[in-house]
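Students often ask why we bother encoding 3D structure as a string. The short answer is that it lets us treat folding as translation between two languages. Here is a chain of 259 residues written in the first language.
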Amino acid sequence: MNNLIEVRKDIPSGTILIRNPDRRNALSTFGLIQLRQALEDLHQEKGVRAVIITGDQNIFCSGTDMKQLCDELDPEGVNDIQQDVELLAELLMVMLRFPKPIIAALNGPAAGSGLAVALASDFIIGAESASVSSPEVLRGLVAGMTLGLLEFRAGATVAARMGLTGQTLSAAEAQRLGFIQEVVADDLVWARSQQLATELANGSPRCQQMTKKLLNETIADQLEKTLTLGVAMTATARTTSHATEGIQAFLEKRKPDWK
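And here it is in the second language, the structure alphabet:
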């Protein structure tokens, strides 16, 4: 199986590149496992002071691999559904508790679980053409992982707006709502992320770790409870007839028929 995650060590930063171009950089089970392993590898690298997560070409991450999810809707795949949701929740908690700063460089659309990964980062730098969305409700699904993080970063009103409508927001609108820190020209998103990583390298790594713990640890404990409920709701939603119809409609590029 091909690697879906590429790791680069460009001291003082380490880069995690999501590479699944055939599926718009979607995160499959294998991708989630590889992404967590990449974080663990960069954790061990003393020269790496910050981690940048970005996507290949002009897409950050389109979220859950819908083709894989469609296959898992078969009765024999029910256990895989639960496992995938738990893997994502565990990855997000690892990111929130990661001792080094994480920068999400949105070089394009970040949707669903891809948006959740961005929200679990400490900084989000967005290209002008980037967009964010939580489209699960349009697929007969529940955004159990993303909504808790959206509420954490931007408040319940924003979480409700995105979670209940599934609408796509521009990077500029997300910045106005407070969960993207900076928006830059498309050809500068990588350079600005690297510049930020260099700025972070000027600080004390021990104090940055303590600061992250101060900022995230209490909220991470609360968020863990939210994600536990989110796991249950997300997994349950994936077993319904609306999920079957919504995913099939998405793959067939048609409007779903909610019966």
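Translate back mentally: The CA atoms of residues 12 and 199 lie 10 Å apart. Keep this in mind for the problem set.
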